[in-house]
Amino acid sequence: MKTLVLNSGSSSIKYSLFEMDDQSVLAAGVIESIGGSHSLHRYKIGSDSAISQTLALADHAQGLHTLFSGLQHNAILQDAAELFCIGHRVVHGGELFRQPVIIDSRVTEKISELSALAPLHNPANVQGIQQALNEFGSVPQVAVFDTAFHQTLPQHAYHYALPRSWYDDFAIRRYGFHGTSHYYVAKKAAEHLARPLAELNLITLHLGNGCSITAIENGKSVDTSMGMTPMEGLMMGTRCGDIDPALSFYVERIAGLSSAEIEQLLNRSSGLKGVCGENDMRAVHRLAESGDQQAQLALDMFAYRIKKYLGAYFAVLGKVDAIVFTGGIGENDSWLRAQCCANLAALGIAIDEEKNTSARAECLDISARQQAVAVLVIRTNEELEIALQSVDCVLNGGS
Ligand code: ADP
Q1: CA-CA 20 to 30 A from 339: which of 98, 118, 119, 230?
Q2: How far is the centre of ligand 1, averaged over its atoms, from the C-alpha of 181 (Å)?
């Protein structure tokens, strides 16, 4: 049973083709710089080494055609009819989409209407969906939403203390993101602990270029650090995370910046990059090791913010079975994990330094012995989770 997962950005398409019978990756790749004369297609067939091609791809339609031709050329997929379904990552499902849904014209229209809430992402997702419908004809296509897992947040967690009409008229509330990843690692944690997810309280930390932390009670998301947009919450590679909203007005007055310029600065020039000039965590560590004090400050701030949220979510949940680190930073940065968990023995959290620095695995338990809270490092796999949810959605007739 072959399933294709597509993640369409404004000028890129990421894809993975799975054989769902054994969950193996038959092919995976990314097409970047669509719309230019130097579009780049990098892909891997199974475990072969990566292949790169430079092409001129005018739009997503040509990008998807290249992707399909490549799969045919490599004899991985001869005919679209071999696909059981296609799963699309869609960033914003608003309050409308609480679970994956089979795509039809009404669904596409609704995703398009939600573009006001995610102007950088939803229009690109819609473009990918429309072109995939053209390219792959009658194959069932499913939308899987980044926000869906957090639709279980209670009202007191998702409302902002703002005029009620802003919610009623403009849908302003906290939505949360990275839901597919939080859910995937939560399921893996349940497997590791050999207990049903519905009986577990977890705190999951997705730390990549974007970062978020989620409190999960009895298997359901009850709070998460990203809000109406992915800018709220933890400090990130280039995003500021939590700030005093009044500082925007102050900068507008004192530096004469427009709101669009401030938005751009908070999104693209803040976080690790704003504090020390680098947004890639490995580069920040290298700078800090060379004695750069701003880089050390950036690391300390990044870890401190996470620790504050850990404490807050511990209070939200009362009892925590496991803390899960995932994402490029969460999975690889043992220094950061140690900082976040330092001096928390009173909460039943302590890690074993030797386990913490041991080789990567799908799931690594780094807790010190006899602690109440397991500390796990779990490799996320959003593409596989999208594929699993898409197959499930098709088998269950669209809900
Ligand atoms: P995305 O959110 O775009 O999917 P990733 O989950 O791949 O990104 O995470 C990217 C981040 O992971 C970058 O900041 C990168 O520096 C960091 N990272 C990757 N490997 C390591 C490592 N060995 N140590 C520390 N950080 C790492």
Answers
A1: 230
A2: 15
What are the pocket residues of ligand 1 if the criterion is a CB atom closer than 6 Å to any ligand atom? 208-210, 237, 280-282, 327-329, 332-333
User: Are 2-145 and 194-382 in the same CATH fold?
Assistant: yes
pLDDT given at position 79: 93
How far, in Å, from the CA of 333 to the mean position of ligand 1? Answer: 9
User: For the chain, which ranges sit under pLDDT 50?
Assistant: none
Active site residues: 146
DSSP 370: T
- Between CA 360 and CA 3, with CA 87 as vertex, the angle to 5 degrees is 75
Q: Where along the chain do its domains lie?
A: 2-145, 194-382
* Tally of CB atoms within 10 A around 98: 16
Q: Which fold has domain 2-145?
A: Nucleotidyltransferase; domain 5 (3.30.420)
Residue closest to 35 by CA, chosen among 17, 15, 16, 61: 61
Question: What CATH architecture is 194-382?
Answer: 2-Layer Sandwich (3.30)
Q: What is the pLDDT of residue 361?
A: 86
